[in-house]
## 1
Amino acid sequence: MQNKNAIIINFLMHLHPKTVNVQAIKFTRTFGLGGINALLFVILAVTGLLLRFSYVPTPTDAYNSILALQNNSIFGSLLRNIHHWSAMLMVVTAFLHLLRVFYTGSIYYERKKNWYYGLALFAVVLAFNFTGYLLPWDQLSFWAVTIMTNIVEYIPFIGNGFANIIRGGETVNGNTLLNFYNFHTALLPLLFVVFIVIHFWLVRKAKGVTVADNTNESTVKVNPDLISKEIITALVLLVSIILFSIFFDASLLEKANPLISPNPSKAPWYFMGIQELLINLHPIFVSFIIPILIITFFVLIVKSQINKDKIGTWFYSKEGKKTIIISAIFASVLVKSLIFSFEYFINLSELNIPLYISTGIIPFLMYLIPVSAFIFYLKSVRKADKIELILAIVTIIFTSYLVMSFVGIWLRGDAMHLIF
Ligand code: HEM
Ligand code: HEM
């Protein structure tokens, strides 16, 4: 036992320097989120490898292999549940970690590259979840993947070809299942490991996580001060996931039927914001223009010059915090009002003009003009500086997405009409 503990501690020590700034190990500095994501990946890789022993990636047998796993082996359901719930949790914790590094200003200068690797990791986490979603081959998974790959088709010029490559055909079929299985169990694990090694190395290179007050240079020993906290967090996480998985089963509807789509047919919950956007906006904006604008913005923000004393401070400053709160309220009211108006009062598709104008440019401007006016107000009246404006815009983007996801997941029913 002594020996085993020594191996674990030795391994953890290799990931850290010998000493770190005393503030860096406060729980509220990182909420342990980077480590939690790393542990979730380990749990997923281990349970995933075990699932592979019974899973058969063909349309005739995939569903039955999961039923057999659940019914015929003692810990089959538990294994599947742990994999399922850890995967769902990882979308949340990866997003929270993204918010933590962004709102503590930990993405500028020497951490710029790690923001990019982080974004790549986030994309890989979503890809893992999306490809995993299809594998049970039930009605839920089949139609969710059908909806999402149809959205890909709307990307101008390359959309159709690209969607056909992912699906291995014109529709979701056996080739899609095999493609997704190979992405899920071979390509994505490889990508994740490569990115995470670089990610960790870059954290070390930047001399650890950011701290709020650079003048306080007192340090503590990583072993035991930090390592003990890491081990406790890991144990709490592990026990919570196992307990949750004992009591809550991952859903499994009836076997996929390509001829009957459920009503309503919904995308996976983390992509519901995209599906909700598609209800209100022309597909070219959803599949192409908006993603390009957001990705470009996320690539560019880290090139800004920020006052080095502010790095590591939650929400940048008191004023920054206020800016974030009013931006979130503003975005939430704006998005809800637009969704409500488009559902009950305004029918833009009836206008006698090309659809990309009536259901594209016009609703897009109905969002963009108030947002621009709000940013102008922050700049001219509240004298917000560049970093505060970045905080405001990112908050508006995330709040808009979260509100759309909320509406899509909980307030859309029969034929995707609003229900209360
Ligand atoms: C690294 C190695 C991994 C392997 C070998 C693996 C393998 C598998 C296998 C064989 C299945 C089909 C069984 C089933 O659906 O219950 C599956 C499902 C799934 N995987 Fe993974 N997986 C891995 C990592 C991940 C990661 C990192 C995520 C998410 C971040 C993930 C998310 C999912 C999801 C959401 C499902 C569907 C679960 C369900 O509802 O049944 N997997 N995985
Ligand atoms: C999903 C897998 C990920 C894992 C396992 C991971 C792991 C970690 C760990 C262990 C740290 C140091 C401790 C901490 O901040 O908690 C860290 C820092 C960092 N991560 Fe991640 N991360 C992941 C995803 C992301 C994402 C999605 C982003 C942002 C887009 C990101 C950006 C960063 C940045 C900028 C730092 C440096 C923060 C600082 O110096 O204070 N990471 N990551």
Note: The mean pLDDT is 95.
## 2
Amino acid sequence: MAQKRDVKVDRRKFLAGVAVAGAATAVATPEGAQAATPSAGVETPRAPSALPPSAKVASAETGTPKAVAKGNGPFASDFMVDVIKTLNIDYLPSNPASSFRALHESLINYGGNKKPEFLTCTHEESAVAMGHGYFKIAGKPLLTLCHGTVGLQHASMAVYNAWCDRVPVIIVGGNDLDASKRPPGVPTFHSAQDINALVRDFTKWDDTPVSLQHFAQSMVRAYKIAMTPPYGPVAISLDAGLQQEPMKNGETLYIPRLVPTSPPQGDSGAVREAAKLLAGAENPVIVVDRAARTPNGIRLLVQLAEALQAPVFDQGGRMNFPKTHYLSVSGPRAQALIGRADVIIGMELSDFWATVNAWIDNEDNHLHGKNESRIKDGTKLISISSVDLNTKANYQDFQRFQVVDVQMAADAEATLPALIEAVKAAIPASSKAAIEKRGETLKKAYADARVRTKEAAAVAWDVSPISTARLTMEVWAQIKDLDWSFIGSDRQMSNWASRLWPMEKHYHHLGASGGYGVGYNIPAAVGAALANREHGRFSINFNPDGDMMYAPGVLWTAAHHRIPFLTVMHNNRGYHQEVMHVQRLSNRRDRVASLGKTIGPIGTSIDNPDIDYAKLAASMGLWSAGPIKDPVELAPTLKRAVEVVKSGQPALVDVWTQPR
Ligand SMILES: Cc1ncc(C[n+]2csc(CCOP(=O)(O)OP(=O)(O)O)c2C)c(N)n1
Ligand SMILES: [Mg+2]
């Protein structure tokens, strides 16, 4: 067979270790596999479903093989593995399924289960969310194989979260496309004419390759599209037949070289206009959400902020700006500064409207909420956001419409170098003293705000269930001298970690799910911990109870694959967000919320019986402790848990907490 490929990248030789006789070549198959595959040239009718093994097959599967068998390859799915290996993807978290059995078999037997390594997942949603969390640490995507209709249906919420959070995940869905060859029964239920339709509204791109060459192009294209800002998920539907067949004699295939696409940069005229507004502003404010795509983004934001001595309000979609910097603002102080601003630049915001407008839910006589502008008349707004290039019609993740004066459909990080230069050039010498004074005022206000935050954290220090601030600081005391990475979300814990911990590096805070689809936190934490593992970082996760119960099986994945991280449960024994919603409506309607037999309004509590998360974790092989209700017990237990994690294992400590 002629094998002409113009690949220059490093990959396994397709025919390595195989005897080549004349024009006919064969790939060595695992020992004993011969009996399970039809011999070359013999037409074997396709069986309707799995057959009982023949004596020959049974002996091949259970007995000691006598000789190395010859297969009838090379196999199409081996070539697919060659393609995948050029993309430098380290892991493949997946739940196994027949629709991609050929690729699965090639990955572990032909590909040696390396780059990517198969990680066994107990739910497709967990597999995709692992890729989501992993990316935010590693800056590289993972690949997830999904089973036709049902696997992709399970995966879909995680794909949506990745879409909203602008994170690339690559999904290959197995599908038995050819109805005339499709095995009857189960595979038909799991097949569709177009499985990608399930996720098309919240993926950047999808394809259904119909040939091996098409597959090679589609995989490389998918990778490039996913990894071009704005990042996002992509899906490839992969026909089971295409994977399973031997390659055609004489087929000439190549793997396109992967060359990254550069991100879109703001138009130079718009950059100059924005710089002029910022340089001339009396009270400029910088608001960021997913602006720092890489560690360099953090450095660039510091440069811009310092050039202007402007406060930076980090909305927390990523770790954008060091919390330890005196220009970092948050909470009511950030709102007050926005109220005084004459120029506001928003970078990669998911909600510009809510940045400059307030929406008040529980006001009398405003059944649909009360809207209020947060800004002065005439405040100029500038936006740099690559998501303007990524909008689709159906899902409403683009938020309310906001009029903006200078709007760049561009990547903020890629635009920052030009913007910083333009701002420096636009600042008149006469303004330098005023800018410096602005910085001095902000420095003092920063120090005052730190004191107020610490005072607030001390409130109810000794209560049981334990205050979220106390828990946050008890954990901090145990990890502060380590190279720590906060891989969970602190949104439901009054953001105490973001308010109190000295977050500076890109792996100190990862933001949240993006689409607010609950069930993201624990699998994303496992994915992030996986990415931290090779750096020897200590991964720390706070996990809400409701989130944990969507798909706790990912704990087993962490134990099985030795992914070390510490999960501390924020176990408020309920869906507290929804407690507040039902309570709010009851208040508005002047009714007492019905509690039934629970601690919150019916339908919002997770108690009676209380879930024992330590036992749940222990059942899946994790070291665990709790439930801890007395704050005095936290320090010694957390100390032991930290030692366990340092030894390379996952651990979970269950803590009964205050609601927020
Ligand atoms: C998939 C999904 N289902 C339901 C919701 C609605 N929801 C929003 S917050 C929340 C409560 C989650 O409970 P938990 O994770 O324990 O957090 P808590 O509010 O108690 O801190 C729910 C159910 C959602 N956002 N996503
Ligand atoms: Mg809860």
Note: The chain has 22 helices and 21 strands.
